[in-house]
Amino acid sequence: MRQRPLRIGLAGLGSIGQQVARQLDAGIDGLELTAVAAADVEKARQNLAGFRALPRIGTLADLSDTDVVVEMLPARIFADIARPTLERGATLVVASAGALLSHMDLVEVARRTGGRIIVPSGAILGLDAVRAACEAPVASITIETRKSPASLAGAPYLAQQGIDVHALRAATTIFSGTAEEAALAFPANTNVAAALALAGLGPRRTEIRVIADPAVDRNIHTITVESAVARFTCHIDIVPNPENPRSGQLTSRSIIACLRDMVSPVRIGT
Ligand SMILES: NC(=O)C1=CN([C@@H]2O[C@H](COP(=O)(O)OP(=O)(O)OC[C@H]3O[C@@H](n4cnc5c(N)ncnc54)[C@H](OP(=O)(O)O)[C@@H]3O)[C@@H](O)[C@H]2O)C=CC1
Ligand SMILES: O=C([O-])CC(=O)C(=O)O
């Protein structure tokens, strides 16, 4: 049995980070919210007002004494916390799964130091069955992501291709490619494909189609797996976060469930 609670550090206090912080502050046996890193310390202080136990608030460097760092940053600065956390042999929980695809050398760092990289299911479902299916031959794994224009706006690919998603009047496929390509084209919108790729056939053999649909108000993901042992399709409609519609409200809960697993004597699912 652990003698002390697991010290949790949160990197990023945006739409997901704030929900995770609140749930940790509400109290989970065995977990202690020790520190948070924010871009704007004063804004973070306001967001944490009313917490039962105020964590330390600082920069990414201030997470260096925690056991587990939960990364919930913009993809472009993922490595700024991922690398130092793994270099000191701590556990890294990754929200920006797409960014991890460009930093797979971190797996070697973790192997060398004893650190761990944990990618929660986040906004996708079925990774348990995908992993199990991949213990046998798998023919294909695909994902379709359907989102409102507001949930896609700002993606680099849209600017590169001159696509104005707000001008669309009907559902339109705006991207087809691999999970690896999608992570660069839509760094804030296709983490689900990255997590699916890491669970299954890898970023070059996992295909994603992104549909901009002005008629939907959810982030909708459908995965289809054809394997020797099972064929399955999983579908999920996620309520977007009001503060950041690119991210849905399931991801913070997935992270909390993942953190609970680290201290629970019972584990359910693959
Ligand atoms: N795995 C999955 O299924 C999913 C993953 N995601 C991913 O999770 C990540 C977090 O998402 P979300 O919370 O919605 O994003 P937000 O943009 O809402 O939050 C990111 C936060 O990081 C803060 N930040 C920026 N720079 C720094 C820094 N140097 N140090 C500390 N904090 C910093 C930002 O502050 P400020 O606002 O002041 O700039 C912001 O508060 C994203 O990469 C997103 O794509 C999202 C949904 C699902
Ligand atoms: O649906 C969500 O909440 C977010 C999403 O697609 C992603 O980041 O891949």
UniProtKB/TrEMBL annotation:
The active site is at H221. Pathway: Cofactor biosynthesis; NAD(+) biosynthesis; iminoaspartate from L-aspartate (dehydrogenase route): step 1/1. Its EC number is 1.4.1.21. It comes from the Bacteria. NAD(+) binds at A123, N191. Belongs to the L-aspartate dehydrogenase family. Specifically catalyzes the NAD or NADP-dependent dehydrogenation of L-aspartate to iminoaspartate. This is L-aspartate dehydrogenase. The gene is nadX.
